């Protein structure tokens, strides 16, 4: 018979050590994995890519969306991100007045590309992040939805209509539950529209905290972010996904929603279910479907429903992104870029692009134009866009 001393693993004093280790080990591993310090970044498929630059304020373009018009993209750019950005927690001292952000129309089918900066009209304190496009199923009216992290006001979702190549500010939506918005995805279903045609939409709150120190550690330790649904029929917000580690990009269709959970290096897929109450007011709820791990820090998403392809922009070494955020804007270090596709039909993922940052840094958005056999990449801490042949 074994002596009692041989059963030391069951002794209480050892469990006082074992339990904390068991609890902390997954957290530590997740932090290491998310930091990207173990990731080797080798260039993949950079040869068919070229960087498209433009005027000095065509810079720090975090996200973009392709139009239904061939070769046209709408791009959200915020030049002030180089020194003041709520999303990246960068607060440096600007040398001059804070520049307003803007939406650009880019015709990348031309050589060279034709860039047009939209007049933002009376909208001031515009510092955009995510962007998406709604097309009314009956009237064909185009509405651009963007996240605005205003410096001197509460965050909002801004809506613009595109009329005769001009941008017209339609509406500002603020709500207590729109507190740290990152990305937005509209429903095109007519029953979910307000009387003026405003679409309902999903949006992510990427953080719960506003205090910079807590906000910085939240993606590693606290699953407090969420995804919500703004119902344009009722002007109310409904939480549909909770307890996420840094909810980031959202994309999909009227039937599927994809969510980028940056803190877990994962992309989640949900089925969108629609229901109607006794008064005929529609609402939604989500059913979890599946997820994939992608490594690094996934950012914005773009779903192509015809091809059933999800484009995922990734920061393979997030610590390098933080270094770039905090560096001298005139001499920033490289931050690697990566684009992965998730083929929903086959459930396979594939790296389409990886760059050590020498060509294009800080990838935050990607989308495929299959008609022109091209894909585009945006970067929150980079100039212009990256355009690649498929």
TrEMBL record:
GO molecular function: arylesterase activity; metal ion binding
Pfam family, one: Arylesterase
UniProt keyword list: Calcium, Disulfide bond, Glycoprotein, Hydrolase, Metal-binding
InterPro entries: 6-blade_b-propeller_TolB-like, Arylesterase, Serum_paraoxonase/arylesterase
UniProt superkingdom: Eukaryota
Known cofactor(s): Ca(2+)
Binding site residues for Ca(2+): 63, 131, 182, 248, 299-300
Record note on cofactor: Binds 2 calcium ions per subunit.
Disulfide bond sites: 49-388
Family under the similarity heading: Belongs to the paraoxonase family.
Record protein name field: Serum paraoxonase/arylesterase 2
Natural source organism: Rhizopus stolonifer (Rhizopus nigricans)
Taxonomic path: Eukaryota, Fungi, Fungi incertae sedis, Mucoromycota, Mucoromycotina
């Amino acid at each position: 018979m074994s002596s009692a001393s041989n059963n030391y693993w069951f002794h209480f004093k050892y469990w006082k050590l074992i339990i904390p280790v068991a609890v902390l080990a997954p957290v530590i591993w997740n932090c290491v994995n998310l930091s990207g310090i173990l990731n080797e970044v080798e260039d993949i498929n950079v040869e068919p890519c070229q960087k498209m630059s433009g005027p000095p304020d065509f810079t720090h373009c975090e996200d973009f969306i392709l139009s239904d018009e061939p070769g046209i993209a709408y791009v959200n750019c915020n030049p002030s991100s180089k020194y003041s950005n709520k999303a990246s927690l960068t607060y440096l001292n600007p040398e001059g007045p804070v520049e307003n952000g803007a939406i650009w129309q880019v015709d990348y089918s031309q050589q060279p590309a034709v860039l047009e900066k939209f007049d933002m009209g009376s909208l001031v304190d515009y510092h955009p992040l995510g962007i998406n496009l709604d097309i009314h199923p009956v009237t064909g009216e185009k509405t651009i939805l963007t996240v605005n992290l205003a410096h001197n006001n509460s965050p909002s979702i801004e809506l613009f209509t595109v009329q005769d190549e001009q941008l017209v500010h339609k509406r500002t939506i603020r709500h207590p539950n729109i507190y740290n918005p990152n990305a937005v995805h509209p429903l095109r279903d007519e029953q979910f529209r307000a009387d003026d045609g405003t679409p309902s939409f999903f949006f992510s709150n990427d953080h719960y905290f506003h205090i910079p120190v807590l906000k910085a550690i939240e993606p590693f330790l606290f699953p407090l972010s969420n995804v919500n649904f703004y119902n344009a029929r009722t002007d109310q917000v409904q939480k549909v996904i909770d307890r996420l580690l840094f909810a980031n990009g959202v994309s999909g269709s009227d039937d599927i929603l994809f969510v980028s959970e940056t803190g877990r290096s994962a992309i989640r897929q949900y089925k969108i279910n629609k229901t109607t109450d006794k008064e005929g007011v529609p609402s939604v709820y989500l059913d979890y479907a599946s997820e994939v791990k992608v490594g690094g820090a996934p950012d914005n998403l773009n779903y192509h429903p015809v091809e059933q392809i999800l484009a995922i922009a990734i920061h393979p070494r997030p610590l390098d992104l933080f270094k770039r955020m905090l560096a001298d804007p005139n001499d920033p270090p490289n931050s690697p870029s990566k684009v992965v596709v998730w083929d929903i039909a086959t459930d396979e993922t594939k790296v389409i692009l990886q760059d050590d940052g020498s060509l294009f840094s800080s990838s935050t958005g990607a989308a495929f134009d299959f008609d022109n056999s091209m894909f585009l990449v945006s970067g929150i801490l980079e100039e212009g866009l990256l355009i690649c042949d498929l």
